Amino acid sequence: MPLSRRDFIGGLGSGLALTACSGLPRISLEQGNSQYDYILTAEPSPIELIPGTTTPAWTFNQGFPSPVIRARQGQEVSILFRNRLPEPTTIHWHGIRLPIAMDGVPFLTQPPIQPGEDFVYRFTPPDAGTFWYHPHVNSLVQLGRGLVGPIIVEEATPTNFDEDLPLMLKNWHLNEDGSFAPFTSPRAAFRMGTPGAWESVNGQQNPVHNVAPGSLVRLRFLNVDNTVMYTLAIPDHPAWIVAVDGNPIANPRPLTQHEMGPGMRLDIALIAPHEPGQSVSIKNAKGRFLFELMTLKTTAEPALGSREISPLPLNPVPEPDIENAEKLNFVFEWEGAITPTDKAGKSNHQFWTINRRAWEGMSNGNIPAPLATLDLGKTYIFRLKNVTPHSHPIHLHGFTWTVLRSNQKTIETYHTDTVLLQKNEMVEVAFVADNPGRWMYHCHVIEHMKTGLMGYITVR
């Protein structure tokens, strides 16, 4: 029997009570409003990140970490979004397969939402998993100031985790007094980007999350940073990867180290130590060294009964017709040694290209040509080739790729919306072009995206 909307929201409330005890925010509807599942407001809000300082952030619902939106696979969710920023914005639902009108790209899918305006996002997520939301306007500043948040799509059939923790990884561009440092510089933008100086998990440095001894824990890591790559490791406690970029894998595999570019997600399952007062240290590998990222600590009463790691239900991703697929080549190139200028002699920083085209930008009535036009319902194989000296997390809106092969490593086929291309790597991905519209296609290192490494494809 399907849940009613009232029962669904009630269930969300009980689930959020679980995460609230671990320092994550709770969400509730405004009093007397039954029209929307969530009300999300973007506005300037001072927050404390560095203890004893104030940061002039832009936030969702007046705080950070941002609200955890929880939806249910196969059920419609409606979100009233209110723009109370001093500039236009939109919301993009990263990784969710949804109608083009809900994708949140200014001019391409909807007009920018002006200051003081509201917009209703309404969609039915077909896939369960870990996703996130962020603006697609003035991305360097809006994401950099804090406009990032998790959207969790619960499985149609509930899973058996005792703890479910969304964990946003972000390096803030802060000065010692809490004010913002520059989000970018041309010198860094044509390399790997400008890292922040204040590393955080849900806005805290090296946080400790309490879990029950012996409990089955799901850690949902989201790299919501503009630039920084994270390599997750749990060296001293067994842990398993159960989902990559919002998509479950058929057979959970032990976590050794896993690299995540901006925009990417990783779901980890583990069984907490069985005795109170024990800890699990989660690390970020940088070269040969491991640095503390966060800690799980066992407290309170042990979980009742035994626990085991089981595969998550697979998502209903359309199976590509590989034998009849059309192959398209996309070459990601670097022009880092050149600073182009416009007719007036002003620098026009376009350091990156896709098939020798740098993103031209767009405005009302001025949409550039697509990188490719695809036939609705046909299978395509994209050959993604990185000929730059830097890594790029390449993301396509509106679809889920099936990763087939790489020229640098052995691939066990999996699903994703973001592929991390290493230097000189070529990866083949396949998908069914079953979602009509104009879909953004870009590197999720925001400085790369803003300086050329972006375009879109049309499906019709």
Keywords:
mainly beta, 6-stranded mixed sheet, 4 helices
Residue share in β-strands: 35-45%
Distance between the termini: 36 Å
Number of beta strands: 30
Q: How many individual helices?
A: 4
Radius of gyration: 21 Å
Morphology call: globular
Tell me roughly what share of residues is in helical segments.
under 10%
What value does the average pLDDT take? 89
- Taking pLDDT < 50 over at least 5 consecutive residues as the criterion, the unreliable ranges are 1-32
Biggest sheet architecture? 6 strands, mixed
Question: Which structural category fits the helices and strands?
Answer: mainly beta
Strand order of the largest sheet: 10-9-12-17-14-15
